[in-house]
Write a structure and sequence with these properties.
Oligomer: single chain
Radius of gyration: 24 Å
Strand content: 5-15%
Shape: elongated
Strand order of the largest sheet: 3-2-1-4-5-6
Largest sheet: 6 strands, parallel
Bound molecules: uridine-5'-diphosphate-xylopyranose
Structural class: alpha/beta
Number of strands: 13
Number of helices: 18
Distance between the termini: 67 Å
């Protein structure tokens, strides 16, 4: 099918590339002219594992084209709206880009279009789009509006899109439901050439859930808010473990063995970040309160998450006595591994707090340094963990990159001023760290002291 995708961010670019990968003819537009020209010249505007290959392969195969929004609107029967819906100061989602695209479609199109909202939007956005299409239609546009929330995670976007747990479709007509099924058929049947797993044994059952638009829109906010709540819950449990001398990794293991709870998203740490959870929790609170529902539960989830940084810095201060003038190495800037994204990353307010308290901070991240430099331009960005740790009184683990898990302890011990690791992601096994002569403080687990300090 000829499909247009408007917006080439994480969701838009992954959607465009993967729909082309499964056989559709896709036209992807981007209003940011700098980003668009990069894409038209084969340069990736963001770091996402495997995505560059899928984009290149499908451009070369002639199934993926980049261009203007006008050309995208004229291109295909289905138009996926994947523009940004950033948070407004009051926490509401900014829907001005969605409105602008809807209006352009209404003013331009003769004939039929299936308009698919894929950006994360508050409930009832679909009905707003319908209303504005009717108001601004110039040539008697015939249309359907569908909701198709995306659940891909940064760092595994291509795999999540091609091997989803579920595909949620919100529609108000059989015509729209049939078209959406036709679009996703190759993924529902897992019949496509998988760009990640050569002999793709990972073809897994996925649910194709058809519902009404409002319910589909709510599924997205409710799912992300529930996952965020799960993380805040285990973070609270980890604080209790620290006080009573229990081990949160055992507690979460014990909890997770119950399939009603499940062991995923039960990793305590320095808090959830990224461009989804923080803003989706805020937007969901606003949606609920504007509808007269007091979502105090989610307000608590948010508060607990904001407290993670304070709690983490307390641990550092407790060990260092005072922070002023101390050299501190921060390993990890991205909000999670396998991405260069630092939006709402815990690392940023953490480093700012340390700087405000007079610490001398140096940092290292395998991918996210250039993005972080835009937010924190004054600190040194190092080429490897050892350069960052040189002369450090404490090493803080903030993102659980794999490369940190195989650190060279001898080399590290040789460069630090003090052998102290405060881990915000529990990437190490405490006795092992102590065996390498380091004092190790982690989340919700007993501190590990080297022989010499016991
Ligand atoms: C999330 C949702 O997972 C995805 O379905 C949705 O489409 C977009 O938002 P993403 O933001 O890429 O994806 O990150 P995710 O992997 O969900 O992690 C979110 C944050 O939670 C990260 O900061 C991560 O470090 C943190 N996290 C995750 C925890 O602190 N503990 C956990 O157990 C899991």
């Amino acid at each position: 099918m000829k499909i247009a995708v408007i917006g080439a961010g994480y969701v838009g670019l992954t959607t465009a590339a993967c729909l082309a990968q499964v056989g559709h003819e896709v036209f992807c537009s981007e209003s940011d002219t700098g980003k668009l020209s990069k894409l038209q010249n084969g340069v990736m505007p963001l770091f996402e594992p495997d995505l560059a290959t899928v984009v290149d392969d499908n451009r070369e195969a002639g199934r993926l084209t980049f261009g203007s929004t006008e050309d995208a609107i004229d291109w295909g029967k289905a138009i996926f709206i994947c523009v940004g819906t950033p948070p407004l100061p009051n926490g509401d989602a900014d829907l001005s880009s969605i409105e602008a695209v809807s209006r352009s479609i209404a003013k331009r199109v003769k004939g039929y279009r299936l308009i698919v909202e894929k950006s994360t939007v508050p409930v009832q956005t679909g009905s707003q789009i319908r209303k504005h299409l009717a108001i601004h239609s110039t040539y008697g546009l015939d249309y359907d509006v569908a909701s198709n929330p995306e659940f891909l995670r940064e760092g595994s976007a291509v795999g999540d899109f091609l091997h989803p747990d579920r595909i949620v479709v919100g529609v108000e007509s059989i015509r729209a439901a049939e078209l959406m099924r036709e679009i996703y058929e190759p993924i529902i049947e897992q019949k496509f050439v998988c760009p990640i797993h050569k002999n793709c044994g990972t073809a897994k059952e996925n649910a194709f859930l058809v519902t009404d638009t409002n319910s589909a829109e709510l599924i997205k906010h409710a799912s992300n808010s529930f996952l965020a709540m799960k993380i805040s819950f285990i973070n609270m449990v980890s604080d209790l473990c620290e006080v009573v001398g229990a081990d949160v990794s055992k507690v979460s293991q014990g909890m997770g063995l119950d399939p009603r709870i499940g062991n995923v998203f039960l990793n305590p740490g320095i808090g959830f970040g990224g461009f989804c959870f923080p803003k989706d929790v805020q937007a969901f609170i606003r949606i609920a309160e504007k509808s007269g529902c007091n979502f105090a539960l989610l307000r608590e989830v948010e508060k607990i998450n904001q407290q993670r940084i304070v709690h983490f810095v307390d641990k550092v201060r407790k060990e260092l006595w005072s922070i002023r003038g101390k050299k501190i190495a921060v390993l990890g800037l991205a909000f999670k591994p396998n991405t260069d994204d630092v939006r709402f990353a815990p690392s940023i307010p953490l480093i700012q707090t340390l700087i405000d308290e007079g610490a001398v901070v140096s940092v290292y991240d395998p991918e996210a340094s250039s993005k972080a430099k835009e937010l924190l331009p004054t600190i040194p960005y190092c080429g490897d963990p050892y350069e960052a740790a040189a002369g450090a009184e404490a090493i803080l683990i903030v993102t659980e990159w794999d490369e940190f898990k195989t650190i060279d302890w001898k080399r590290l011990a040789g460069v630090v001023e003090r052998r102290l690791i405060v881990d915000g992601r529990n990437i190490f096994n405490p006795p092992e760290v102590a065996a390498h002569g380091f004092h190790y403080i982690s989340v919700g687990r007993l501190p590990a002291l080297p022989e010499s300090q016991v």
